[in-house]
NIPSNAP domain-containing protein (Tumebacillus algifaecis), 105 residues
Amino acid sequence: MAVRGFFEYKITEGKRTDYLELIAKLRVKRTEAGFTHYSVSEGIDQKNLVVETFLVPSIEEYRELEAKLLEDPESALYIRSLDTCIDGGMGARKVWFFAELDFFA
């Protein structure tokens, strides 16, 4: 059963343009790596509040995919640079993973 991942964070004031350039590149890398249904959304009434969502086969697979991205110099650069665009850095990101309920179990 697929796992849905969520990353929530706020873009640092004055870094929106840099963020948009980076997240577009990182979106391509994550999609190529195997993240499916990857999207980046912004709060309607909370400008700069962002949620990235995606599907991966399992939490273990997510960890493997993320590790491979960090091994790729270009992807690693995007991820490190993203830290400067997030209010409080990557450590301030809220990260959640959910599995769909099985209503027939």
User: Anything to note?
Assistant: Residues 14 and 26 are 20 Å apart (CA to CA).
